[in-house]
Structure formats: structure tokens, C-alpha cells
Design goal:
globular; Alpha-Beta Plaits; homodimer; alpha+beta; 20% strand; five-stranded antiparallel β-sheet; Uridine Diphospho-n-acetylenolpyruvylglucosamine Reductase, domain 3; 4 domains
Chain lengths: 460, 460
Amino acid sequence: MRHDPLVQALRAGTPRARVLAREDIPSGLLHDEAAGARHGQARALVLPTETPEVRETVRTCAQFGVPVVARGAGTGLSGGANAVDGCVLIGTERMNRVLEVDTDNQTAIVQPGVVNDDLKGLCAERGLWYPPDPASSAWSTIGGNVATNAGGICCVKYGVTRDYVLGIEAVVGDGTVVRLGGRTVKGVAGYDLLGLFVGSEGTLGVITEVTVRLRSRNSRPPVTVVGFFDSLTAAGEAVVSVTASAATPAALELVDRHCLRAVEAWKRMGMDPNAAVLLLARSDAPADAAEEEARVLLDCFRSAGASWAERSTDPVEAEALFEARRLAYPALARLGPVLTEDVCVPRGHVPEMLAHIEEISAAWGTPVANIAHAGDGNLHPLIMTPGSDAVAMDRVHHVFDAIMDAAIALGGTVTGEHGIGLLKRDGMRREMSSAVLSLQRSVKQALDPQSRFNPGKLVP
Amino acid sequence: MRHDPLVQALRAGTPRARVLAREDIPSGLLHDEAAGARHGQARALVLPTETPEVRETVRTCAQFGVPVVARGAGTGLSGGANAVDGCVLIGTERMNRVLEVDTDNQTAIVQPGVVNDDLKGLCAERGLWYPPDPASSAWSTIGGNVATNAGGICCVKYGVTRDYVLGIEAVVGDGTVVRLGGRTVKGVAGYDLLGLFVGSEGTLGVITEVTVRLRSRNSRPPVTVVGFFDSLTAAGEAVVSVTASAATPAALELVDRHCLRAVEAWKRMGMDPNAAVLLLARSDAPADAAEEEARVLLDCFRSAGASWAERSTDPVEAEALFEARRLAYPALARLGPVLTEDVCVPRGHVPEMLAHIEEISAAWGTPVANIAHAGDGNLHPLIMTPGSDAVAMDRVHHVFDAIMDAAIALGGTVTGEHGIGLLKRDGMRREMSSAVLSLQRSVKQALDPQSRFNPGKLVP
């Protein structure tokens, strides 16, 4: 299909971009990291370097009546970036320039393919900080982070990607370039279209530029408080206690025994294999306040019944524990396929939700590991799939659904930060009323009437 | 018109609500506080106490084909709550119950008519804090604050209303009750319809319940830093210096000599009548960090050329200065009609924007006073209208437009926190491209296809 007229038209429209025909597209670029999400076969892959190339690509797709699927680094966990049959994939990997870092205004303007950690590094050199820190920050791009409204560990104090996006440029419709938001930290002119595009998973257009807000870099070393608990619910009670306290930790993460053992088996970090649950809290409050806050956190851990809890005095050890947290997912994935949940519940309900997960796991005889941005109520139960036979897979899907239903029953949501993509469309139907689903579809219909952008994703 | 069949139908549908016929509606309820914004004559006013009454009211309006205009306390400054001819006004003043304060989850659920300060007070009793603090907080309602995405003084550190709204209930369409968002602090299921409704000025539906996020109450007394400057631009340079510093002040407010003199003439607070500009900064950082931050702020003020700058050692005096800031607008309004701007520019451009305002004022021979949430780049130039003759009014409107254009040219917006309403529709046209205006209209058309809710507002 190198002589596909669509490919020829794409090449003619964007002489400087790379355009790959169907048979030349590496298969790894057809999907993201969501286990079990289907993907189709793209008809072409375009790798632009500038906005006009994206505009021309969308115009050509409009002429040929083919769908457009944008992708960043493909680290998503819900299938949002998966190719649909016959689509043109737009990869942003070559749109990777930081266009401006404005230290006076504490803002940066970047192309969508800039890697999160690369932006962080460049900001750090100027005494600035871009907070959003998804676990994928070493690979994932700002464009993808914006498209999914990515979260991470520091959200509990510093908020999610949405809180740092001041403006975007995007190609919409049949190839129109628009600017939404701007460079100001406040603004209420008209409907918040910027907020609507953040987290819209590429279904409303292709983001071609992002203006983000920065903070001053916090150069003080953080103070870490470590707690081990004998049960998930005791750890959950500690989370509630921290939420209701005056402390504002910069991290409050939970790692259960399944994860601790998987990390230990892999990396031999010397962690106690009998520990049931680890809670990690971190304070980055200024001056003496960090020590004061650490005492509050320690009190919360101990009063909730921690078997062992201390303020870490060894920065290397503290960093190793956070590293264990980061390694939990890949360590488990080494052992076999893992289906990742992303439920989020009101913070006061974290203990009940953890108890429900244990009950569901036991009822279906399927092990479920837990890592969690516990301070946000955002849990990542990891359903371990023991075999690929139909009976085992059936149980896994029952567990998946039961966990979503339990979260919804507690006033929660099926996705705190990974997005709907393909995997959570059924969950979205469970969570929302038919009237709200109808409003969701109205928005898609209004802003992408031809269903050009990432069709079949996000909206059930 | 007490026998208006619409009024009879409204009464039949909502037996417990108060329904006022056209001739019984107090004229003060037909508009908000925007000087110079036109309003029409409502056909009825409904004062419900519960969501079902709002739903039935909207259903009746749909049957009769009449528009619905919701209003809170009417403290808006852009005409957003003004009656349109033949509409049914829904006033939320009797929907004023706090339904829940959840200390574990740090959330509250309120009816839309709850007054901002009343919620603050109830939270304070439980050691909690609802931060958004518009100048109208003693009167304005949470529903109105959400509808306009209200800002205030503490936004510079703590964010705007949007940052505290977790969920809403609203009546949309022909009388359907929907819940958008929820009770979790994170969530990315589908498009951010919640964010779309926040700041939508009643044009998409009527908000009937709001779930807000709270913070722990900060019980430490804040530290205030006061600076006087000989020129607006010097004060602006101090603002840039603070923005680029590591300090995160909880307030950074500017008050110019016009305002200081007006307050002094009214309240006799003993302020220096020769001071050109006052900058007020406040740190509420924990423990010793507040003193450290105060030193940083003081350095910024002095290095920008403050004629006098000190950390306030007298809490009563410091509070009096903030009181002068709050009184600036009413003090000026006492002297004659004032047209209020609400431009917001990138923070690094505050000095240039202040210089432009002075130039425009001089060029048109029209005095312009300035108060500003300077730390956000959100300025409130107050155009003083010397007379009501056509020539004077013409000059005022030229100044109004020129200030908006100057802000747009600096990458700013025509409204940082007051909203579009009626007064800024032309400004929105100046600010946005025709493609973006078209997207704005598409959203309205998609979610309110009959143009039932607050027609003619927000969307030009």
C-alpha cells in the first residue's frame, strides 16, 4: 500500500514530515500499554514536526474521510491511543521542542511530544518545577499527559495535569488551528473549552502546543515517614486520619504485600517479606514545618495501629522505598498479565474500599495486588491473571467489574487518572446516568460532528 | 398578570415554592450589580427550596417556551444574572441549607443559595476552611460563585472556585436532573462536564446542589508585608519580582492613590494621602517559614524601588490595610458611576499593563483607578465616569475598549473572574478567533439546544 493514494496525498501535503505506509508502521506503535485492549490496523503513520503539518494531515484525512488517532509515547493504560482500522496515526515524537521557558511569568510553552522528565529537567536548571509526575514521566509526553489529564504521586498536594495547563493549540474540525486558554493564571471568558480538551483523549482534536504553569523549585530535601501495617484496612484508617489532619503531605502512597514481594523477588532490596502493607508519606513543607508535619503524619500512622512507623533518617533508604513503589507495577507485570484498575473513592472511604477489594479477591479466588495514591483515594488494584483459559479470564473480568461497582457504590469513579479509552467504556456506562451519557455524546457530536478524532474512544 | 396562565402553572407544579407574578417582583431582583448592563422584565419569579421544585419550574418553562434565568445574591458585575424579557427568574435564596460537612473526607454538600461566608463560618467551627473569597463573600452564594467561577484575594495561592468544586447537581434540558463530577478529588471519566458548567453563567442549566472540597483551617496568624511605591509601574515590577521568587504569598494586592484617597475620604483611616500605590502581601506559610517568606517579599518590594516597605508588626493595622483594599470599590462607587474592568495578563506583564492603563487614561482624559489581584495578573481598572453626557460616556467606552485591547495584545484576557455576562460579550469577540467563538456556540447549542437557559449571555 505504499502506493495508497492517501499516503501519497499525505506526503504531498506535508513534504517535511515523515509519512509511513501501512506495512512500514512498527506494530508497537499501533497500541498503548493497556493489557487486553484491542487495536486495529492504521493505514498510515505521520510524524510531523510542526503544527502546519498536523493541520495539513487532518485536512487530507477529512478529504479522504478517514479517522485520525494521535499518540504520544504510548504509555497509556486504557487503550486510548490504540489505532482504529483504516486510521491515520499522528505520532508526536518529533514535535519535541521546548519553545519557551518564561522565568518571570513561571510558564513554559512546549510542543506535545516533549517528554515529561525532559521538561522537568529543563525547568530545574532555571530553578523552576513542573509538578505533574505520572509513573511514566521518563517516557510519557506532555501532549499525552494533557490528553489524559495525567495524575501521579504529587497530586495529593500539587494537583493533576489540568491544574498546570494554561493554554493549548489544537487542530480541530476539518483542519482548523485554534488556541484555547492562554498564558494567564486566571480567565473566565466563555465556556472552559481548555478544560474540556484536557482529558478528552484525542477525541476532540490533535493538541499541537501546550502552555503550562510552573512553580518555584523546592530545593529542600523532603522528609519521609514510613509505616508498616498488618492489614490493608489499618493502612486505610491511617490514610483517613491523615486526610482529616492539618497535614498536607506531598505524597501518601500505599504498597501491599503482593507488590512488596514482587519487587523484593526482582530487585533484592532487603525489604521484610512478611510486611503486609507499606504506607509512604512525604512532607516538603518549608523550614521547620516539615518536621512538624512529619510528627503529625507519624501520629496518624501510629494511632491507626501501624506495626512499625518512623520518620526516615536515611534519605537513601527513603528514596529506595519510593523506588519500590515505582517498581511495583513492572515487578508484578513480570510475573504474568495484570489487569490494572484505577478506581477513585472519597478519601474517607479508602478503608471500606480496600476491604471490598479483599472480599472480591477472595470470593473469586483471584489474587489482587494493591498500589494506591492513597491520599487521593485513587487505588490501583492490580488483578493478577493466573492463566489464560476461559474460566480464569472470566473470573478476572468479574473481579474487574465488581471492583468498579464497589467504587461506584461508595460515591467513587471507575477512573481517577488513566482515562476511559477502550477498557473503561463499560465502567463509564455503569457510573453515569443515561442523561449524563447523553450530555457526553452531545459534546462529542458538537465538537467533532464527523467523528474524525479517535472514534470509539472515551464516549461509550 | 397575577392570572397569567404561566404563573398558575408554576404554582400548580411547585405548591411549596414561592411564585411571584410579574408585578410583584421587586425591581432589584431583575439585575445584578453591573453598572450599565441592560435588563428585561421577568414574567415570574420562583423561589424554590428543593431540587424537585427547580425541575418542575424548568419543565413548566419548557412547556410554555419561556427562558429561565437563575440568580443567587445578584452581586455579579457583568450582567450575567439580569432578567431577559418574558423569562422566569429562579432565585436560590431559600435553597440555603448546608446538607453535609464531612470532616473525614474534607468535603461539604450545599444548596446553591448558601452564602459563601456562612459556609466558611460553619467550616471554621469544624477546623475546616473553604478558601474561595470573592469580595462579595458576605452576600454572594456558592451557586453564584460556581456559575461565575468566582475568584478573590487568596486565589494567588489557593486557586479559584473551580479548584474546590468536586461535583454539582443541575437541572438541564427540559427538566432533567443530572449529577456531574462527584465526591472524589480525582476523576477522569469522560469529558469534564463539571468544569464546563463551572463558569457557564447559568447558560447550560440551573445548579441545584454543590459538593465542595475543603482544606484544614490555617489557625496561624498570617504575616503581612506592606509596600508603598511612587508609581504604578514600580509596584508592577515588585509583583513580577514576587512571581519569579520562591515565595508563594497567600495574597498580593494592589491599591492605587485614587482608591486610597476615596477610602480615606470615606473612612478616615489615617492613610497617607500622598502615597501613589500600596502593595499588600501576606504569607500564611507554616511555622518559621512565614517569617522567611516575609523577608523574601520585603526584598522584592525594596529591590523594585518601594518608597517604604516593612513587615507589619501590628495585626490590627495590617487588617485595616486589607479592609481598605476591600472598601476600595464601594468607596469609589460612592463618588459616582464606575465601570469595572477585569482584565488578566500574564504575570510578567503586569508593569506594562499598568503603564498602558495610565497612557489610555491620559489619552482620553478619563480618570482610571486601579485595584488588582496583582499576583494573578488580574487587574480591576475602575473607569470613573465624570458625567452622563454623551461625550463623557463615549470617552468612557473608548477607555473600556482600549484597556481590553491592551490586555489582549499582552496575551491576556478580558475577564479574569467576573465573567462575560452582557458587558464583556464584545470583549470576548475581540479576544477569541472566529473558530473558537464557533466552538463556544457549538457547546451552547449542544447542551441547551432550545436556548432555554439565560439566553443572550456569555456567548456573543
